[in-house]
Amino acid sequence: MDTSGLTGLDQRIAGCRACPRLVAWREEVARTKRAAFADWTYWGRPVPGFGPADARLLIVGLAPAAHGGNRTGRMFTGDRSGDVLYRALYDVGLASRPTAVSADDGLRLHGVRITSPVHCAPPANKPTPRERDTCRPWLVRELRLLRPTLRSVLVLGAFGWQAALPAFAAAGWTVPRPRPVFGHGARYTLAAEDGGDRSGGEDLGLFGCFHVSQRNTFTGRLTPEMLREVLTTAARTAGLPAGNRTTGPSGAG
Which family does the entry's similarity section mention (predicted)? Predict the structure, then answer.
Protein backbone atom coordinates (compact mmCIF):
# COMPACT_ATOMS: atom_id res chain seq x y z
CA MET A 1 0.00 0.00 0.00
CA ASP A 2 1.22 3.50 -0.88
CA THR A 3 1.37 5.34 2.45
CA SER A 4 2.64 8.66 1.11
CA GLY A 5 0.72 11.55 -0.35
CA LEU A 6 -2.93 11.69 -1.33
CA THR A 7 -2.97 8.18 -2.77
CA GLY A 8 -1.94 6.76 0.58
CA LEU A 9 -4.41 8.99 2.40
CA ASP A 10 -7.25 7.86 0.15
CA GLN A 11 -6.38 4.22 0.81
CA ARG A 12 -6.36 4.78 4.56
CA ILE A 13 -9.67 6.62 4.48
CA ALA A 14 -11.30 3.81 2.52
CA GLY A 15 -10.32 1.36 5.25
CA CYS A 16 -11.56 3.41 8.22
CA ARG A 17 -14.00 1.80 10.68
CA ALA A 18 -13.85 4.38 13.46
CA CYS A 19 -17.58 5.16 13.77
CA PRO A 20 -19.73 2.08 14.53
CA ARG A 21 -23.05 3.69 13.57
CA LEU A 22 -21.74 4.82 10.20
CA VAL A 23 -20.03 1.49 9.50
CA ALA A 24 -23.27 -0.39 10.22
CA TRP A 25 -25.38 1.96 8.09
CA ARG A 26 -23.14 2.13 5.03
CA GLU A 27 -22.75 -1.66 4.99
CA GLU A 28 -26.47 -2.27 5.49
CA VAL A 29 -27.26 0.02 2.55
CA ALA A 30 -24.68 -1.81 0.44
CA ARG A 31 -26.35 -5.15 1.24
CA THR A 32 -29.98 -4.18 0.79
CA LYS A 33 -29.43 -1.71 -2.10
CA ARG A 34 -32.07 0.33 -3.86
CA ALA A 35 -34.21 -1.52 -6.37
CA ALA A 36 -32.97 0.67 -9.23
CA PHE A 37 -29.40 -0.40 -8.46
CA ALA A 38 -30.01 -4.05 -7.68
CA ASP A 39 -27.35 -5.16 -10.20
CA TRP A 40 -24.67 -2.88 -8.68
CA THR A 41 -21.95 -4.01 -6.34
CA TYR A 42 -21.99 -1.17 -3.84
CA TRP A 43 -18.75 0.39 -2.61
CA GLY A 44 -20.05 0.38 0.97
CA ARG A 45 -16.93 1.99 2.48
CA PRO A 46 -15.70 5.49 3.32
CA VAL A 47 -15.45 7.59 0.15
CA PRO A 48 -12.09 9.37 -0.31
CA GLY A 49 -11.60 12.70 -2.04
CA PHE A 50 -11.59 12.97 -5.81
CA GLY A 51 -9.35 15.12 -7.98
CA PRO A 52 -5.70 15.90 -8.72
CA ALA A 53 -3.00 16.12 -6.06
CA ASP A 54 -2.00 19.60 -7.28
CA ALA A 55 -5.51 21.07 -7.07
CA ARG A 56 -5.76 24.82 -6.63
CA LEU A 57 -9.46 24.73 -5.67
CA LEU A 58 -11.02 22.39 -3.11
CA ILE A 59 -14.78 21.82 -2.93
CA VAL A 60 -16.03 20.62 0.46
CA GLY A 61 -19.43 18.96 0.74
CA LEU A 62 -21.17 17.23 3.65
CA ALA A 63 -20.99 13.43 3.36
CA PRO A 64 -21.50 10.78 0.66
CA ALA A 65 -25.06 9.89 -0.30
CA ALA A 66 -26.24 6.38 0.60
CA HIS A 67 -27.00 5.44 -3.01
CA GLY A 68 -24.56 7.89 -4.60
CA GLY A 69 -20.98 7.92 -3.35
CA ASN A 70 -21.63 4.96 -1.05
CA ARG A 71 -22.65 3.01 -4.16
CA THR A 72 -20.08 4.26 -6.68
CA GLY A 73 -17.08 4.94 -4.42
CA ARG A 74 -16.56 8.48 -5.71
CA MET A 75 -17.61 11.84 -4.31
CA PHE A 76 -20.94 13.21 -5.62
CA THR A 77 -21.13 10.43 -8.22
CA GLY A 78 -24.39 8.70 -9.03
CA ASP A 79 -26.91 11.01 -7.36
CA ARG A 80 -28.87 14.14 -8.25
CA SER A 81 -26.74 16.45 -6.15
CA GLY A 82 -23.73 15.27 -8.13
CA ASP A 83 -25.63 15.79 -11.37
CA VAL A 84 -26.01 19.46 -10.49
CA LEU A 85 -22.44 19.94 -9.26
CA TYR A 86 -20.65 18.22 -12.15
CA ARG A 87 -22.85 19.92 -14.73
CA ALA A 88 -21.80 23.27 -13.29
CA LEU A 89 -18.13 22.26 -13.12
CA TYR A 90 -18.29 21.23 -16.77
CA ASP A 91 -20.10 24.43 -17.76
CA VAL A 92 -17.31 26.60 -16.33
CA GLY A 93 -14.51 24.44 -17.73
CA LEU A 94 -13.45 22.60 -14.57
CA ALA A 95 -14.58 19.08 -15.51
CA SER A 96 -14.04 16.99 -18.63
CA ARG A 97 -17.67 15.86 -18.89
CA PRO A 98 -21.03 17.05 -17.52
CA THR A 99 -22.10 13.80 -15.84
CA ALA A 100 -20.70 11.49 -13.17
CA VAL A 101 -22.16 7.99 -13.15
CA SER A 102 -19.39 5.66 -11.97
CA ALA A 103 -15.81 5.74 -10.74
CA ASP A 104 -14.57 4.46 -14.12
CA ASP A 105 -16.54 6.80 -16.40
CA GLY A 106 -13.44 8.75 -17.44
CA LEU A 107 -14.40 11.99 -15.70
CA ARG A 108 -11.44 14.26 -14.93
CA LEU A 109 -11.37 17.45 -12.89
CA HIS A 110 -9.17 20.37 -13.95
CA GLY A 111 -7.35 21.92 -11.00
CA VAL A 112 -10.17 20.97 -8.63
CA ARG A 113 -10.52 18.36 -5.90
CA ILE A 114 -13.75 17.39 -4.11
CA THR A 115 -13.91 16.11 -0.54
CA SER A 116 -16.15 16.12 2.53
CA PRO A 117 -15.74 16.46 6.29
CA VAL A 118 -17.48 13.09 6.81
CA HIS A 119 -16.44 10.25 4.50
CA CYS A 120 -19.18 7.70 5.29
CA ALA A 121 -22.82 7.93 4.25
CA PRO A 122 -24.81 8.80 7.41
CA PRO A 123 -28.41 7.84 8.20
CA ALA A 124 -30.80 10.59 7.04
CA ASN A 125 -27.76 12.50 5.73
CA LYS A 126 -27.07 13.67 9.30
CA PRO A 127 -23.72 12.84 10.89
CA THR A 128 -23.49 13.39 14.62
CA PRO A 129 -21.09 16.01 16.04
CA ARG A 130 -18.94 13.17 17.38
CA GLU A 131 -18.76 11.52 13.94
CA ARG A 132 -17.86 14.84 12.37
CA ASP A 133 -15.07 15.38 14.89
CA THR A 134 -13.78 11.81 14.55
CA CYS A 135 -13.48 12.27 10.78
CA ARG A 136 -11.81 15.69 10.96
CA PRO A 137 -8.18 14.46 11.03
CA TRP A 138 -8.65 13.07 7.51
CA LEU A 139 -9.62 16.53 6.23
CA VAL A 140 -6.74 18.14 8.10
CA ARG A 141 -4.29 15.73 6.48
CA GLU A 142 -5.81 16.31 3.05
CA LEU A 143 -5.52 20.08 3.45
CA ARG A 144 -1.89 19.78 4.52
CA LEU A 145 -1.07 17.65 1.49
CA LEU A 146 -2.81 20.11 -0.83
CA ARG A 147 -1.33 23.20 0.81
CA PRO A 148 1.54 23.82 -1.66
CA THR A 149 -0.93 24.45 -4.50
CA LEU A 150 -4.26 25.14 -2.77
CA ARG A 151 -5.47 28.73 -3.15
CA SER A 152 -9.22 28.62 -2.54
CA VAL A 153 -11.92 26.46 -0.97
CA LEU A 154 -15.62 26.42 -1.81
CA VAL A 155 -17.75 24.97 0.98
CA LEU A 156 -21.22 23.64 0.18
CA GLY A 157 -23.62 24.20 3.04
CA ALA A 158 -23.50 25.31 6.67
CA PHE A 159 -22.60 21.86 8.05
CA GLY A 160 -19.51 21.61 5.89
CA TRP A 161 -18.59 25.20 6.74
CA GLN A 162 -18.69 24.63 10.50
CA ALA A 163 -16.88 21.30 10.17
CA ALA A 164 -14.14 22.71 7.95
CA LEU A 165 -13.19 25.82 9.93
CA PRO A 166 -11.32 23.91 12.67
CA ALA A 167 -9.61 21.83 9.98
CA PHE A 168 -8.29 24.95 8.25
CA ALA A 169 -6.84 26.12 11.56
CA ALA A 170 -5.21 22.75 12.23
CA ALA A 171 -3.78 22.64 8.71
CA GLY A 172 -1.96 25.97 8.95
CA TRP A 173 -4.34 28.83 8.19
CA THR A 174 -5.56 31.46 10.61
CA VAL A 175 -9.34 31.47 11.03
CA PRO A 176 -10.48 34.99 11.98
CA ARG A 177 -12.35 35.72 15.20
CA PRO A 178 -15.22 36.10 15.29
CA ARG A 179 -15.50 33.10 13.03
CA PRO A 180 -16.51 33.63 9.40
CA VAL A 181 -20.28 33.36 8.99
CA PHE A 182 -21.67 30.99 6.37
CA GLY A 183 -23.85 32.31 3.60
CA HIS A 184 -24.23 31.84 -0.12
CA GLY A 185 -21.63 34.08 -1.71
CA ALA A 186 -19.75 34.57 1.56
CA ARG A 187 -16.08 35.31 0.96
CA TYR A 188 -13.17 35.48 3.38
CA THR A 189 -9.39 35.25 3.31
CA LEU A 190 -7.60 32.86 5.67
CA ALA A 191 -4.00 33.91 6.24
CA ALA A 192 -1.33 31.23 6.02
CA GLU A 193 0.49 30.87 9.30
CA ASP A 194 4.24 31.36 9.22
CA GLY A 195 5.11 27.88 10.45
CA GLY A 196 8.13 25.76 9.62
CA ASP A 197 6.07 23.07 7.86
CA ARG A 198 3.93 25.25 5.58
CA SER A 199 5.50 23.69 2.48
CA GLY A 200 4.92 26.78 0.40
CA GLY A 201 1.33 27.33 1.45
CA GLU A 202 -0.23 30.74 0.83
CA ASP A 203 -3.34 32.59 1.94
CA LEU A 204 -6.58 30.79 1.22
CA GLY A 205 -9.75 32.21 -0.30
CA LEU A 206 -12.80 30.78 1.52
CA PHE A 207 -16.16 30.83 -0.27
CA GLY A 208 -19.63 29.73 0.80
CA CYS A 209 -22.32 28.21 -1.41
CA PHE A 210 -25.70 26.67 -0.65
CA HIS A 211 -25.44 22.89 -0.80
CA VAL A 212 -26.39 21.22 -4.07
CA SER A 213 -29.06 19.16 -2.29
CA GLN A 214 -32.35 18.37 -3.99
CA ARG A 215 -34.11 20.51 -1.38
CA ASN A 216 -32.13 23.55 -2.51
CA THR A 217 -32.02 22.91 -6.24
CA PHE A 218 -35.66 21.78 -6.63
CA THR A 219 -36.97 24.83 -4.77
CA GLY A 220 -34.76 27.28 -6.61
CA ARG A 221 -32.88 28.34 -3.51
CA LEU A 222 -29.77 27.39 -5.48
CA THR A 223 -30.02 27.84 -9.23
CA PRO A 224 -27.51 26.66 -11.85
CA GLU A 225 -26.62 30.29 -12.49
CA MET A 226 -25.89 30.92 -8.80
CA LEU A 227 -23.71 27.83 -8.61
CA ARG A 228 -21.77 28.68 -11.77
CA GLU A 229 -21.17 32.22 -10.53
CA VAL A 230 -19.66 31.22 -7.18
CA LEU A 231 -17.67 28.39 -8.79
CA THR A 232 -16.20 30.81 -11.31
CA THR A 233 -15.28 33.34 -8.63
CA ALA A 234 -13.62 30.73 -6.42
CA ALA A 235 -11.78 29.19 -9.36
CA ARG A 236 -10.45 32.51 -10.65
CA THR A 237 -9.29 33.40 -7.13
CA ALA A 238 -7.35 30.13 -7.23
CA GLY A 239 -5.78 31.10 -10.55
CA LEU A 240 -7.89 28.76 -12.68
CA PRO A 241 -9.24 30.18 -15.98
CA ALA A 242 -12.85 29.25 -15.38
CA GLY A 243 -15.63 30.67 -17.50
CA ASN A 244 -18.71 29.86 -19.52
CA ARG A 245 -17.79 27.19 -22.09
CA THR A 246 -19.40 29.16 -24.88
CA THR A 247 -17.66 32.45 -24.04
CA GLY A 248 -14.62 31.63 -21.91
CA PRO A 249 -11.87 29.09 -21.31
CA SER A 250 -12.93 25.46 -21.57
CA GLY A 251 -10.48 23.99 -19.09
CA ALA A 252 -7.56 24.49 -16.80
CA GLY A 253 -4.64 22.41 -15.66
Answer: Belongs to the uracil-DNA glycosylase (UDG) superfamily. Type 5 (UDGb) family.
- 3-state DSSP assignment of residue 69: helix
Please tell me the distance from the alpha carbon of residue 19 to that of residue 222, in angstroms, as a whole number.
32
Note the pTM of the prediction, 2 decimals: 0.93
**Per-residue burial over 169-204, b = 16 or more CB atoms within 10 Å of its CB, e = otherwise:** ebbbbebeeeebebebeeeeebebeeeeebeebeeb
What confidence tens digit (pLDDT) does each residue in 150-203 have?
999 999 999 999 999 999 999 999 999 999 999 999 999 999 987 544 455 799
| Burial per residue of 93-126, b for 16 or more beta-carbon CB atoms within 10 angstroms, e otherwise | bbbbeeebeebeeebebbbbbbbbbbbbbbeebe
> What domains are defined for the chain?
5-237 (3.40.470.10)
Dihedral angle sign, alpha carbons of residues 18, 21, 22, 25: positive
pLDDT at 2: 44
